[in-house]
Amino acid sequence: MQPYFFPYLGHFSLIASVDRWYVFDITQYTPRTWMNRNRILHPQEGAQYVTVPLANSSNSIKTSEAKVLDRAAARQSIIGKLTHYKKHAPHYGAVVALVQEAFDATTNDSLVQLNVHTLQAVCRYLGIRFDFQICSELNLSLPASLGPGDWAPNICSLVGATSYVNPIGGQELFDPTEFSRRGVDLYFAKTREFSYPTIPYKYEPYLSILDVLMWNSPAAVGDAIRQCVELVHVDNLQPVASSGA
Length: 245
Known about the structure:
Oligomer: single chain
Helix content: 25-40%
Structural class: alpha/beta
Strand content: 5-15%
Order of helices and strands: HEEEHHHEHEHEHHE
């Protein structure tokens, strides 16, 4: 998966479902995605973004080349936007400490490094095993031109994987025969919404894990992560309906 910034709970359900996580940072960077921003509750109504501004946000670079503009300023801004939780959310202090931990662990301006540290901090807090490798550091011998659905089977072959899990929203990208001929079982993760009280605010679904952790204990979030995901083998999926006329 691409390296996302404090992603939503379903991302951690996926991490908890696999033996090894590959940080997919070797393709073109896409601006205005979950890689440098996410959503938390707004102090008045709805949701607001917390964002890590970049020095070089452009689709002309690879994800591995994305650089944070000012880590200290980004951390200050994000923690500032979290302060409205302080009077109401029972785990405010622990969540702010996670943000500080991720930023403090980052030693350069790499967005990938920062995002990996956000995943590490949350997984450590929740007791989730997070064994990862960063694709750009592996020197993988990949074909020069690959389509969106070709990266995963090729990487699986190169790293010796026997199974691969992807969010079910990407089902249409993949040709199952490309996995089966490599001896790789293809699974899709179906995740369910985890809702929780956010009094006095109105609950908003699918916010950053930061919001989930504000209102729920590590044990409760760990249970939700295990209970909200189902892995379905490709052979047991319903065919994708045609969108043609």
